[in-house]
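Illustration: O-acetylhomoserine aminocarboxypropyltransferase/cysteine synthase.
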Amino acid sequence: MNINDAKLETKCLHAGYMPSKGEPCALPIYQSTTFKYDTTDEMGQLFDLKAEGYFYTRLQNPTNDAVAAKIASLEGGVAALLTSSGQAANFYAVFNICEAGDHVVAASTIYGGTFNLLAVTLQKLGIECTFVDTDSSPEEIAAAFRPNTKVLFAETIANPALVVLDIEKYAKVAHEHGVPLIVDNTFATPVNCRPFEWGADIVTHSTTKYMDGHAIQVGGAIVDSGNFDWDAYGHKYHGLTEPDESYHGIIYTKQFGKKAYITKATSQLMRDLGSIPSPMNCFLLNIGLETLPLRVERHCSNAQKTAEFLASHPKVSRVIYPGLPGDRYHELAKKYLPNGSCGVISFELKGGRDAAVRFMDSLDMAKIATHVAASKTMVLHPASHTHRQMNDEQLVEAGVSPGMIRLSVGIEHIDDILADLSKALENA
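Result:
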């Protein structure tokens, strides 16, 4: 059978690596920096991108490539690149098609680290970013575009504001302006949403989160749909459509077709910046991917029950979770996330910041940790942790109030989760 035609649950187990007779059933760890060849010409062909093969793990590695192929299959893309972190993935995804003098438009309710990447770090490289309210009308989003805009960026489910993106709306605006839509799909995972099916062109992930699921490796992924026509806008994306003198004048779109974007990211950015994941980390990620559908289902089930519990508690003033009928993004979630959104809940206590701190410090099972989407329940205070670099105005723009709590519901038994929360709420 063609594994790419299989159901997602089957792809999680088999895509990317199908052993032949006598080969190990588990994906091998190719823990080697280098790979041997018999002739000088064989190695030269690899450096010229005229032949496929492995010669240095900074560019390609069999373990890493197998996991990348699995993630590409899960998202329905043509190719993927693994990076050493989710932040590296977002940086590479944008920088692969942007350079000094270019401009990016991004939804404001994105992860704080990504906000800072686009607002501060890329600006130091000469790339400017304009942020728009995620719920803006198409006309308002379009008004942020400039002649030098190269990318529209957003998240399927914003971290931690839990704003659900209207992917079709954003894709339409992006394509009307001749730019690709990049969507960070970390929270939804391809189990609950595949943005390419709604018009997105490139997807990124922090594989550290649900894909890993056990908080044992840090990684990222970029997946290309292969659908964006770079040649149609060659004057904008000359790095893909004009000769690359660092590789003897090859033109990526001509030589690699639908895999041009990922090939350029690998051969240029990974060559020069080197944000690779280790083969061991990719092996661990692959183990997490095998159970991704099972875990996501449990995360969503537990989170739904937890959100309903919190919504009915007298000390809770507000619960943000797309699965709740009263949530402002419930209808969008029904459209884009019909099988569940994620295991992350944001909520506020009536006592504000002080009550939130008392609540967090009273938890026994749930861990205070700067992490989400692990098998164990974790909690943090975004304004003090992930978004602490933002001022109050930026916090509001990002959908984060000073007293907001981000709760990442794990896969423990729901009774034990609710018991832990109940006890802590008594002290809030």
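Reading the tokens back as a structure: The longest helix spans residues 292-311.
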